[in-house]
Design brief:
This protein is α+β, with helices and mostly antiparallel strands and about 350 residues long. The chain folds into 3 domains: about 1-110, no CATH class; about 135-225, Roll (Chitinase A, domain 3); about 265-330. It contains 11 helices and 6 strands.
Length: about 350
């Protein structure tokens, strides 16, 4: 509430008498007036106030405006309104308010959608309305750059679970983010919804989103259709906002085309040069990341190779020791055999001796 009050006060020049409109006064703070128009400006931005709560809401807003004026008076007495930081902040707020007012005027000038246009939109989007579903989803998002969509699509079509897909992506070294939860049709991007609507419960597949490849699995879904009568007011608001946004975009392009715009310093060369530099910087950062990843993989591979070589050397040394011991035992056995000389017995001489 306080921020809203402050925003409404910026354009009045921080409470200076000569810049206030002649409106009904509802309070005075050390001679500085608080007007009913200030209260109404804040009140218009406060949504969901019931008639029963309106008197209390007005009192709360008035208290906030009084407290704000006290702070403004203190700031002015300390000449804070002349400090570079505050002057810059006020100027920036003024610029933002003026720019927003101009763009809102462009949007408001567009014709309101008709009932026929809203009905046509309803008929053209069954997944949003007549065939609306609420989905329980598992989702994997993969950044588009540098990935083969054909391989991803084929793999997504062959797996049975989202966990199996995650394991395959990790094995391939493909970065991804996983998500899940329950979402209704209107919470799903319009470029994704028609393809997802064709999925049956339990089905996994790849859908190409605006900025990423989406591997999606419909865990379960339930039908919750919306009738035309229910949908038409919301559709009109959506079409109005869409029409306004398109008008603002065209208006900006027209203004830019007619204006004389010059760029200086690091932005010299214009918007095209700046975009080219930004793209080059992004490409350099991506290349550096790729090189760092390749180096990390090479280092890991070298570490594994060194570990394997160390283990092989240790095994060879152990085998050599075993062979040396076996040879030593064999040599010892042969030495013992050679040292035992058989005693020759002269039977004839023995017999003579007996005689």
């Amino acid at each position: 509430m306080v921020l809203a009050i402050m925003a409404c006060t910026v354009v009045t020049g921080c409470g200076k008498k000569n810049e206030k409109a002649a409106t009904q006064v509802i309070a005075s703070v050390d001679g500085e007036e608080v007007s009913v128009s200030q209260m109404n400006a804040v009140l218009s931005k406060a949504a969901g106030i019931s008639p029963e709560r309106l008197p209390q809401a007005k009192q709360d807003i008035l208290n906030g405006l009084v407290e704000q004026q006290l702070a403004i008076n203190l700031a002015v007495s300390k000449k804070l309104d002349r400090t570079p930081e505050v002057v810059t902040a006020i100027e920036n707020a003024k610029r933002e308010i003026l720019a927003r007012a101009a763009l809102e005027q462009m949007a408001a000038a567009q014709p309101k959608p008709t009932d026929e246009e809203a009905q046509q939109y309803f008929a053209a989007n069954p997944p949003l309305f007549a065939q609306r579903r609420v989905y329980s989803l598992q989702e994997i998002a993969i950044r588009k750059s540098g990935h083969d969509i054909t391989e991803l699509r084929e793999r997504a079509a062959s797996v049975k679970t989202i966990e199996e897909m995650s394991a395959w992506l990790k094995e391939k070294g493909i970065e991804f983010t996983a998500n899940g939860g329950t979402r209704s049709a209107e919470q799903i991007p319009l470029e994704v919804l028609p393809q997802l609507h064709a999925f049956k419960d339990g089905q996994i597949g790849l859908i190409e989103g605006k900025d990423a490849y989406l591997i999606m699995r419909v865990v379960a879904s339930r039908s919750q259709p919306v009738t035309e009568t229910q949908a038409l007011p919301t559709i009109k608001v959506y079409l109005k906002n869409q029409r306004g946004a398109e008008a603002v975009k065209r208006g900006k392009e027209t203004l830019k085309a007619k204006a004389k715009i010059e760029y200086f310093g690091e932005f010299a060369g214009g918007e095209a040069a700046f975009k080219a530099k930004a793209l080059a910087d992004a490409k350099a950062a991506e290349d550096a990341q790729t090189q760092a990843k390749a180096k990390a993989e090479a280092d890991a591979q070298a570490l594994l190779q060194k570990k394997a070589e160390t283990q092989a050397a240790a095994q060879a040394e152990a085998n050599a020791r075993l062979a040396s011991r076996a040879q030593a035992r064999e040599n010892a056995s042969n030495s013992e055999k050679s040292s035992v000389q058989p005693v020759a017995i002269d039977l004839e001489k023995g017999m003579k001796g007996l005689k």
